[in-house]
Design a protein that fits this description.
The structure is a single chain. 23% of the residues lie in helices and 28% in strands. With 233 residues, the protein is α+β, with helices and mostly antiparallel strands. A 5-stranded mixed beta sheet has the order 9-8-12-10-11, with helices on one face. Strands 4-1-7 form a 3-stranded antiparallel beta sheet, with helices on one face. A hairpin with a 5-residue loop joins strand 8 and strand 9. The chain is elongated.
Length: 233
Amino acid sequence: MKKLVFAIFIMALLMSCVNTARLTYFRDIHPDSAVTVTPQHEIRLLPGDKISVVVNSKDQKLASLFNLSNAPVGNANGNNDAIVPYSSLQYTVDASGNIDFPVMGTIRVGGLTRDSVAKHIKSLLVGQLLLTDAVVNVEFANLYVSVLGEVRLPGRYPIKRDWFTIIDAISMAGDLTTNGDRAHVLVMRREGNLRRAYRIDMRSAEKLYSSPAYYLRQGDVVYIEPLRAKRGE
């Protein structure tokens, strides 16, 4: 009887070790260790993306000419001459990578980062002597990634940062369930006319951080497969 109890205990211990191994992230990270991270990939605008662009200046009436807005938002004293936020509308990047900007007309933004768009518009305003003290703020409006499968909160999540990682996406989705396969996380990405698939082993920091899919792009789909007994990992 004692041998049977001992055998059951050993089996339970082994099963616990296997389950822990399956559920543990970054198993190859140790104190004072370091891994090489893939070069940072900033979000670059594609046709169909939407952005908001707000132009400010000391002369807010002049700045209003360069904002897609119904009206300026005045301060509590009703003074609309102060630098205050605008209730801005959104620009959609067209098939050629352009937006139609007030006064200046067509501006190419396709392939640019958020910061590059802001600097480009500011340089045009200042260079053409339209608004010499322009302050330009650009924000993403409709960029997202989808997280599906074995996560606690599957859904579509907005991209608000210039660098958005798979860790960010999984964290927003509430982490993987205990049935989620951390060794075979799938990222599907559209690249031109192709749909490319990447697999990431979240248990290995080295494999995770070196993956070309570590930094996500707008429209990426992250799919968490259920564990499969045959893998035995």
